[in-house]
């Protein structure tokens, strides 16, 4: 079988098995759900995750997560949940030290927060904006851990964005990586 025929066969089978969306990347689109919940029309994007200090046990570190809300999001960003993925050490956050600002760093205008809730599991935190972040804006959230983990490695934090609306489903944006070194 020639290479061209083989590749065409694989693509045809992939399209039949996985659907056309498997081969073509499309933006996430959603409509108002049957129960009245709202969802993003176009997905916000996690564009950056970083630590101000990456050495083990550092009590001065802050973790920053930057999220871009595209113009065509359809809904404003109401809240963000950050969840540490399982690792050899658990980060404990200081909820009262959490901040948010417009832009790609904390040098932008501060965004007032309605609440910062620590979940029942250490390493999880929910940030609620006093005024939702409108489409076309970028927000950076800074979270203060009690200290960096005592074990070096790559720590993953899942980021989920929630649009305005009551009990709206969150949209998982992916995992931000924080590298802890000696």
Automatic annotation (TrEMBL):
Q: Signal: is it a keyword of this entry?
A: yes
Superkingdom, according to UniProt? Bacteria
Q: What name does the UniProt record give this protein?
A: DUF2808 domain-containing protein
One family name in Pfam for this protein? DUF2808
Q: Which UniProt keywords apply?
A: Plasmid, Signal
Q: Which residues form the signal peptide?
A: 1-19
């Amino acid at each position: 079988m020639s290479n061209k025929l083989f590749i065409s066969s694989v693509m045809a089978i992939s399209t039949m098995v996985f659907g056309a969306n498997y081969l073509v990347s499309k933006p996430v689109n959603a409509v108002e759900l049957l129960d009245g919940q709202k969802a993003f029309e176009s997905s916000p994007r996690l564009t950056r995750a970083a630590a101000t200090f990456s050495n083990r046990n550092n009590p001065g570190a802050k973790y920053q997560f930057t999220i871009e809300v595209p113009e065509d999001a359809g809904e404003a960003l109401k809240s963000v949940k950050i969840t540490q993925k399982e690792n050899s050490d658990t980060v404990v956050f200081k909820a009262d030290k959490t901040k948010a600002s417009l832009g790609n760093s904390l040098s932008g205008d501060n965004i007032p927060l309605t609440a910062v809730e620590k979940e029942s599991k250490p390493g999880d935190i929910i940030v609620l904006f006093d005024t939702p972040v409108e489409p076309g804006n970028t927000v950076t959230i800074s979270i203060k851990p009690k200290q960096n983990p005592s074990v070096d490695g790559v720590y993953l934090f899942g980021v989920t964005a929630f649009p305005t609306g009551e009990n709206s489903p969150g949209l998982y944006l992916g995992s931000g990586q924080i590298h802890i070194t000696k």
